[in-house]
């Protein structure tokens, strides 16, 4: 049995440390390889957004939530809105601006709440990817070792 524990760390410019901590936590909770990679990349994008577009300060909190891992990324500036999530697309001519789109396609569920402490973006990744429903396209898939954007 895996003892439940929570990871909590401040957002800093040391993205490698945050990726390593989230990866170790998710691995300890039993998240398999490709799902772990998806979660770590999504958290990296969320933290990068806090550093580049938000207040530059906040926290990352990760915990087991039933059959999935939940990672909360708190941006103390509180500027992230549901409209930002809804408008997230990929512009093939742009050199940046993919973060929210990537997050939403790598995670099984993404929620956003405004709190008295800031914008709280929560990323959920199940231990197993959900099977596509009938007449629905397969979930976003990327070749291992590279991120491919196709439209």
From TrEMBL:
Q: Which UniProt keywords apply?
A: Kinase, Serine/threonine-protein kinase, Transferase
| Keyword Endoplasmic reticulum appears in the UniProt entry | no
Show the InterPro entries listed in the entry.
Anti-sigma-factor_SerPK, HATPase_C_sf, HATPase_dom
Q: Residue limits of the Histidine kinase/HSP90-like ATPase domain?
A: 13-123
- Which domain of life does this protein belong to? Bacteria
Gene3D superfamilies recorded for this chain?
Histidine kinase-like ATPase, C-terminal domain (3.30.565.10)
Keyword Glycosyltransferase appears in the UniProt entry: no
Which spans of this chain does the record mark as coiled coil? none
**PANTHER family on file:** ANTI-SIGMA-F FACTOR RSBW, ANTI-SIGMA-F FACTOR RSBW-RELATED
The identity of this protein, by name, is Histidine kinase/HSP90-like ATPase domain-containing protein
Q: Which organism is it from?
A: Nonomuraea maheshkhaliensis
